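Deliverable D4.2, example record:
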Amino acid sequence: MADATATILGALIGFLGGLIVARYTFRQKADELFLSGLQYLAGGSQQRNLGIAALRLAWESKRHQKHIAPLVVGSAIYLLQESKQEDAAHEVNNLQRLMKLVFDAKREGALTDEDRASVVTAIEAKLKIGPRNSPGLFVKEEDLKTWQKHFGGDA
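Output generated by the structure prediction step:
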């Protein structure tokens, strides 16, 4: 009887140890994904594309959300106000993907009031001077108004 108990106890300890190692490995991979997203987000449009994809995957880790939100806000504002790509389809797509992440951040409570206000200000500035009459990507006015409404700006 003692051997059976020891065997069961040993198996249970081994199983729990395996769970701990698996959880640690998952967290480590999520951290690596988050860091690779940071690295790629800083590059040109194709690297930005990879960075957005990596951050989208890392988003599933709740502990990274509060760090991802300001990054995607900053990148979205850059594309709205500073990008020289005009109407390049790949960058417009990147902006739309970034905005989806910003919407997710708002829904999950990871978007600060300051970041929300920054996005709204950038959208409203783009609308005020015209989507095609300003630096930054050329974005459809209807998209800007939809985003503005989503964030509670003047629609």
